[in-house]
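User: Please fill in residues for this 227-position structure.
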């Protein structure tokens, strides 16, 4: 039997989808909870989803300017790498894709360990690395990366809710997520700063972030007074 699950998001009219990405994730979480059939488990995960929503609201209210400043600093970067692992490998892929779609620039995501043993050799002092590292294995492992990036002066931006002294000392920038979540719920929140960064990066580079990436000529942002 074929079944259709309506996820919402029909109001996400712009060609670069953002809200609907999180809505689809939530629908998958809810579907999994229905299959589990455990009332206590369902209550726990519904609380996690609500906590992620609260964190998203706080981040937009309190940290948008911080992310905007990062876009201003790296607007001329030739490329942006986004690294994640575990539940947030998909978050890294979505974040990288939105940088491509909105800012019309080269970006690539990769699994944390794979990057460390391969493409880390390609980085330079002009291309920032985003590390999606919520508390747990990812935040502990990222210290090994930061030791190298600090040594070779590659800009690093760490997204985490667990700002250790090591991360504070070695990272170029830290975006501290406003709430602590179960690691498997973190994709609901950690994609948000990547969406905001892609949007602000587009504006800094002079592009309309809502323009379709397959337009023949990307639409430029028109400022007041321009014809």
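Assistant: Residues filled in for all 227 positions:
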């Amino acid at each position: 039997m074929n079944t259709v699950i309506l996820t919402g998001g029909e109001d996400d009219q712009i060609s670069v989808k953002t809200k609907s990405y999180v809505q689809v994730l939530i629908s998958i979480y809810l579907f999994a909870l229905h299959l589990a059939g455990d009332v206590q488990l369902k209550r726990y995960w519904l609380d996690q989803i609500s906590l992620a929503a609260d964190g998203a609201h706080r981040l937009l209210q309190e940290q948008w300017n911080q992310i905007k400043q990062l876009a201003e600093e790296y607007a001329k970067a030739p490329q942006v790498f986004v690294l994640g692992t575990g539940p947030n490998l998909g978050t890294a892929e979505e974040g990288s894709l939105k940088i491509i779609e909105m800012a019309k620039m080269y970006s690539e995501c990769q699994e944390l360990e794979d990057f460390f043993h391969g493409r880390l050799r390609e980085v330079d002092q002009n291309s920032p690395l985003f590390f999606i590292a919520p508390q747990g294995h990812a935040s502990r492992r990222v210290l090994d990366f930061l030791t190298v990036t600090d040594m070779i002066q590659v800009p690093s931006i760490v997204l985490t809710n667990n700002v250790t002294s090591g991360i504070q000392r070695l990272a170029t920038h830290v975006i501290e997520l406003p709430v602590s979540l179960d690691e498997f719920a973190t994709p609901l929140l950690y994609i948000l700063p990547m969406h905001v960064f892609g949007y602000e990066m587009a504006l800094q580079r002079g592009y309309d972030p809502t323009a379709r990436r397959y337009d023949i000529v990307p639409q430029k942002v028109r400022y007041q007074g321009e014809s």
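For context: The CA atoms of residues 12 and 19 lie 6 Å apart.
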